[in-house]
Design a protein that fits this description.
With 190 residues, the protein is an alpha+beta fold. It has 5 helices and 7 strands, in the order βααβββαβαββα. Strand 3 and strand 4 form a beta hairpin. Helix 1 crosses helix 2.
Length: 190
């Protein structure tokens, strides 16, 4: 069964295409975009990441989707959902995440796409909870988690980084299906 990916007034979330590789690699090698990640990605690493995203979307019908601006047809980044069965102390869980190219920051695109992903998570997939996390230094992403109605759960050390790494301490947010449904009845499908 194929379930179509979320779409918003300005954005199309979709499966990855070959023409997405170069613009995605460009944003993954931008020091500002990647400021709260351990390292910039090489073209090969970025392409491999897209391939992992593509395979998971093919397998599950959802994942970290390519985000296309409808007006221009441009790839602006990725937003989506990713199941984490055993990586974190709070696993199993499904995370929501985003990464947009700098020209598309501060335009409401991340919030618009993430809102559509939460609707998909709770209304289509019927997940019980969605989590999000980022380095404590990534204040814009944390602010977005708050705008999405997520609740701060606390701090944790990212298992993929040494404990003394500057990005090791992460903040964890979550949103339950019950809270989402009770708080969004008035503007769902708007």
């Amino acid at each position: 069964m194929t379930i179509s990916a979320p779409e918003t007034a300005r954005l199309r979330l979709r499966q990855w295409r070959t023409e997405d590789l170069a613009p995605f690699a460009a944003l993954n090698s931008d020091p500002e975009v990647m400021g709260c990640f351990p390292a910039l990605l090489s073209r090969e690493e970025s392409d491999a990441l897209v391939e992992r995203f593509r395979v998971l979307i093919d397998l599950n019908g959802w994942g970290f989707w390519a985000v296309e601006e409808k007006a221009s047809g441009a790839l602006i980044g990725m937003v989506g959902l990713h199941h984490q069965p055993d990586r974190f102390s709070f696993s199993p869980c499904t995370e929501i995440g985003w990464r947009l190219a700098k020209p598309y920051w501060h335009k409401g695109f991340a919030c618009e796409a993430a809102t559509a992903c939460l609707a998909y998570a709770f209304e289509v997939l019927a997940l019980d909870e969605v989590v999000s996390f980022t380095s404590i230094h990534n204040l814009p992403s944390e602010a977005l988690m708050q705008r999405l109605g997520m609740t701060r759960q606390g701090l944790f050390l990212h298992p993929g980084l040494p404990a003394d790494h500057r990005l090791a301490t992460h903040v964890l947010y979550s949103l339950s299906r019950q809270r989402y449904l009770s708080g969004n009845k008035h503007h769902r499908h708007a």
